[in-house]
Design goal:
With 539 residues, the chain is mainly α. It has helices at 2-25, 27-57, 60-73, 77-113, 123-134, 136-152, 157-184, 189-227, 237-275, 280-310, 313-321, 325-352, 354-361, 366-375, 378-394, 399-423, 425-451, 456-483, 492-516, 519-524, 526-534. The protein is 86% helix and 0% strand.
Length: 539
């Protein structure tokens, strides 16, 4: 069972990673088609949609999985099937209600974002794209409970495959829709973006087809399990959903944290910039750089680090539940060190190579470069918040997730407008930094209190990681300076060469320092020894 669980976790992590990878790189052709005007409009629709979908579904796969797995372990298979049947109906209702709320409220949301007539977009344009994306809410919650049910049976393949298929179908429709509308039909940008956001619904259909196929293939086996049901536990529907709600609330809060911070920017950025005399069209251009272009790139190191770190969290939960303090300390040490080791150099490298990286993904833009340079280090906070919030769930202190998120959001909300007035785009980034820093501090204090964990080893190793990152930064900066004598970051292809060469130099040096100091061995154990044997490396 344990090997099956490990294999399932790997499959799910791989599926999530592929899905995120695809979700990142489609922005290159998409930006080429719709430019800043289109990405700003796209983001006006997607941020509120993400919040709605997080509330409607975040935590449902995980909480349903936890519930089903719990009762399967005591051979009460009928309880999980009862949840599944009633859950399908409930999620269908939740999806339709969420769709109606977002569809009806679209004009109000639009006027909260755009009120000035000299903006690139109009309230009517924003209303149109929000309503186009709202249809996805009908289908996505329905999928979430099916995924959770399969995961509860230790079957991660359906979730992983459906996520990847959903993403592929969505991206194909995004790009094909925008291309046909703009290049073939010579239609408007609003129509093109509306097709692009409606792709979330089409992608959902693709994912749902995959899940139905898996259900058809697995149903005979699931029915056999029902025949083995002990039937000694009778849990009412009310008790089932009370338990599910308690499981899911922490996941919801973690899921909506980043979209909420983005939504605060969406509500305040344009208005504040116009109030200090910035032209409305320029304000939207800057908003697009902040909340779409830069955000997509900053999420890269976050996704990589959290994917590795969060795989350690189940072990944290196990050690805490069993009262194994030594094991808990070891797992927390590993989690925090892996997070720092992967995130810090990636964030620093992204900031250093901001100009060529921004050009490779979008175009050469001094404003975009400046924003990315400042925004890139915030990736460390994004990753640290996600991991500390997950650890709090592992040590049964998830109520502090509510406190930390509320404090973080309150700080962002209070400081965003005055800081934007003082520092423009950098002010919005600073407000995000202060909000996340406060939330992380609360999480760390709660972790220390409930797990009796001491951070001394992490601090010592963290200093070593900082030193290695500094050496990597210096070497990469010198290489970048030398290469720019022959290559220009203003040329897209030369910028790509700059990124590849500097990336290889920086990552290679950082990896070498980790090997020579044995730091990698402490963090990744036997897996590193196997790699060294495979590639005939010494040290």
């Amino acid at each position: 069972m344990s090997s099956k669980l490990i294999r399932g976790t790997f499959i799910l992590t791989l599926g999530t990673f592929i899905s995120k990878f695809l979700g990142l790189f489609y922005v290159i052709p998409f930006f080429a088609l719709v430019k800043e005007d289109g990405t700003a409009l796209y983001n006006y629709a997607y941020v509120p949609y993400t919040i709605f979908i997080s509330i409607a579904t975040a935590g449902i796969p995980a909480s349903v999985s936890k519930f089903v797995s719990k009762y399967n372990a005591i051979e009460e298979y009928a309880v999980g099937r009862k949840l599944f049947k009633t859950g399908l109906f409930l999620m269908a209702i939740t999806g339709i209600l969420s769709f109606l709320v977002l569809y009806v409220s679209a004009p109000n949301l639009a006027t909260m974002v755009i009120s000035e007539k000299d903006h690139l977009s109009s309230p009517e344009d924003v209303t149109t794209v929000i309503r186009a994306v709202s249809f996805a809410l009908i289908i996505v919650p329905f999928m979430s409970i099916i995924r959770g049910f399969f995961q509860g049976h230790q079957s991660m393949g359906p979730t992983a495959v459906s996520q990847v298929v959903e993403q592929i179908v969505r991206i194909v429709f995004v790009l094909a829709g925008a291309f046909v509308v703009l290049k073939v039909m010579k239609g408007s940008l609003v129509t093109a973006v509306s097709f692009s956001v409606f792709a979330a619904f089409i992608g959902g259909l693709g994912g749902l087809v995959v899940l139905f196929w898996y259900w058809y293939k697995r149903k005979p086996h699931l029915d056999e399990l029902l025949l083995q049901d002990k039937g000694t536990v009778d849990v009412s529907v009310k008790e089932i959903y009370k338990e599910i709600l308690l499981y899911s609330i922490p996941f919801v809060l973690v899921g909506i944290s980043n979209p909420l911070f983005q939504f605060i920017d969406q509500l305040t950025f344009n208005r504040t910039m116009v109030s200090i005399g910035v032209d409305g069209k320029l304000a939207e251009h800057m908003f697009s750089i902040l909340n779409f272009q830069s955000q997509k790139l900053v999420i890269i190191p976050v996704s990589l680090a959290t994917a590795f770190s969060l795989t350690l969290v189940p072990a944290v939960t196990k050690s805490f539940t069993e009262g194994d303090q030594k094991g808990l300390n070891h797992q927390l040490n590993q989690t925090f060190q892996v997070l720092m080791y992967l995130t810090l150099p990636a964030a620093v490298g992204l900031s250093l190579l901001a100009e060529p990286i921004y050009n490779v993904f979008y175009k050469h833009d001094p404003m975009g470069t400046e924003v990315l340079q400042v925004y890139a280090p915030v990736a460390i906070l994004f990753a640290l918040y996600a991991v500390t919030a997950a650890i709090l769930q592992g040590v049964d202190a998830q109520k502090f997730n509510i406190l930390s998120l509320l404090v973080g959001i309150l700080i962002k909300l209070s400081l965003n407008i005055p800081l934007i007035k003082m520092m423009e785009t950098k002010g919005a980034i600073l407000a995000t930094v202060l909000g996340y820093a406060a939330a992380i501090l609360i999480n760390l204090i709660a972790i220390k209190h409930f797990s009796k964990y001491r951070f001394r080893l992490v601090v010592r190793r963290g200093m070593l990681i900082i030193i290695f990152t500094g050496i990597m930064y210096g070497a990469t900066k010198i290489a970048y300076w030398l290469l720019t004598m022959f290559l220009s970051p203003e040329s897209k292809w030369q910028a790509l060469v700059l990124v590849i060469i500097c990336g290889v130099i920086g990552a290679g040096l950082y990896f070498y320092l980790g090997l020579k100091s044995k730091l990698i061995n402490f963090l990744f154990g036997n897996r590193v020894d196997k790699l060294k044997e495979k590639f005939h490396l010494k040290g």
